[in-house]
Every structure is written in structure tokens, then in C-alpha cells.
Amino acid sequence: MPELEALGWDAVWEAAFEPHRTAGLAPGRVAVPHRGAYDVLTAEGEARARVSGRLRHEAAPADLPVVGDWVALEPRSKGARIIRAVLPRRTKFSRLNVTREQVVAANVDVVFIVASLSERLDPGVLERYLTLTWESGARPVILLTKADLEPDPEAIAAEVAGVGGEVPVHAVSARTGLGLDAVRSYLPPGVTGALLGPSGVGKSTLVNTLVGDEDLLTTAAVRDDGSGRHTTTRRQLVLLPGGGLVVDNPGMREVHLWLAENGLGEAFEDLAELAAQCRFSDCRHETEPGCAVQAALADGRLEPGRWRSYRELHRELAELEERLARRERSRARRRPGAGAP
Question: What is the C-alpha separation between 276 and 50, in angstroms, rounded?
């Protein structure tokens, strides 16, 4: 039975929880979300819980519990325990789901962005994950899995390092153990990591290796060509033998940005520095004289693919903001008394 500190609890969480403790509630951390229920880790062990009717009615969908959240629980009863409140999140990893924010995981300290060396690496996909990770408030680390299938994985890791700037990049192999100590170094006791990446890149296999149970999270799947792979079908928080925690996420075929302007600036810090050198503060980086971005493209300091990726993500965010603004204007017109003198 883990102590709360092993789950990431500290003095700051304790201070935030004090009003709930005074009300007779107990803290717990969401480990596995189910449809209509949650598995929650507490000081007494694992408990099944559900959200109170009042919380479900009053909270926005993005504010309901997700994996990694700290929650306030009613004392143990015969049935499922009741979640009365969700503590304010330190970090949250969000993406766009149709027209709403979907919070994927909360209170994550480090995000491992996972790509497989057995497949073609797409810098644009990595840049998209980096943008979301920086926006979440967590630290990003890039992991290149299945390194045993690549003759010179470190050379590829060096090439990928250019995508993330100062973001660490590690080639890892669950089969040979390459890079696993580096991964463990990011997850000391009480620190929470999350693995993000497409399906089939080895996220669950990596978690299973870190836990020491090869069948803990994965389920068998078969590609169209008949070759096997492993996938995970649900999001869950796992306690590692060394004391850290990790969230394994199902593969995401598409990851759309959710209001990540700050994250975009962090992921493309080199472009922000170039833009600051333009002659005009409102430079659109097209045909304006004195454009530092166009100059960097011309002399090779800025790769065209990176510039295209930035413009695509920037355009996606601008379109999202406009859609949300139109929706809010539409709601405002429908409110009682709208337009009245």
C-alpha cells in the first residue's frame, strides 16, 4: 500500500486540501478512469469511486476528474466512494476534441514524447506534441524506441535533437535495455511522467519493462500486414518500483491543438528569436523588407519544413480561436435580455 508521498503528495497539495480535510474528506489520486467511475489510489489502498451529482452538474466537462488528478473523497462506505471535488491542477495536457477541450492527463511533471525508429520519423508530429507539452506546463523529453532495430540510433537521435532545441532526446530499447536508465532518471519517487505518441510505437512495452511485468498494460493487436504489435486501450497511472509514476496513454491518431499559443512559442523558440529581429514589429514574414525569417530561410539557417510546420500549427490555433469566438458570440445573442435596450 503506497504512502501518499509516493503518489506525488507534498506540502503544497496538503495546504490546498486543508478545507476538504476539515470537511471530513480524504485525498486520493485518479489512477484509471472508467465510464461513470474511477479507480482512485488512497492512503488505504485502491478504491472505486464516482463523481457526486453536484460536481457533475456544476463542473465543466474539462474540469471533471482525469487520470493524475487529486480528488477529495467521502469516507469509505459499502458502495463506491464519492468524489466531491477536484484539486486545482498544476499541469494539464489538453487537446481539441471536436470543438471542446479534452484534458488527457493532469499533474504530470515530465512528458515522454515517443516515436519509433522502426518507422519514418515525422518532425511535424514531434513539433505538434512538443507544442502541447510545453503548453501543459510539463517538461518534454523525446524517446526514440525500438533502437535495437536501427544500426546507428544515436546518430538519428542527434538529428532529431534539432527539432526540439534543448529538449533531451534518448534512443531506447525495451529489448536490450538501451536508454532505460536515462528514462528512470527522470522519474524519482513522487515524480509523474506520461508517455504520448501514436499507437504501436512501444509506449506500453516500455512501461511494462519499467514496471517489470511484460503483460501489465499491453493487449495484442495485428497490423494489416499480419505482423504483431502491442497497444494499450485505456489511460492509467502506474506506480514504478523505483518510486516514480507513469501514465500510459492509448495511441492518438490525430492530435489537434487546444489554445496552445504559449506552447507554440516554446516549441519554436528559434523562430520567435528570428521574428524579434525583423525590421517591422508587425512583419508577416512573407515579402516584407528586413524580414529575418525570410533571410534565415534564404541562407539555410531555418529549414523550410520547420517553417511550414510552424505556419500550419499557427493557422490551426488562429482558426480554433475564431471558432470559439463565434460560438461565444452566438451564445451571447441567445442569452435572456441580449440586445435589449
Answer: 50
pTM over 0.85? The answer is no
DSSP-derived secondary structure for 221-275? EE-TTS-EEEE--S-EEEE-TTS-EEEE----S-----S-HHHHHHHTHHHHHHH
What is the tens place of the pLDDT at every residue in 106-124? 999 999 988 888 888 777 7
CATH of 268-330, one of 1.10.10.10, 3.40.50.1820, 1.10.390.10, 1.10.40.50: 1.10.40.50
Q: What is the pLDDT of residues 24-63, one digit of tens each?
A: 999 999 999 988 899 999 998 899 999 999 999 999 888 9
C-alpha cell at 302: 531555418
3-class state of residue 35 by DSSP: coil
How far is it, in rounded angstroms, from Cα 270 to Cα 144?
Answer: 23
CA-to-CA distance for 52 and 81, rounded, in angstroms?
9
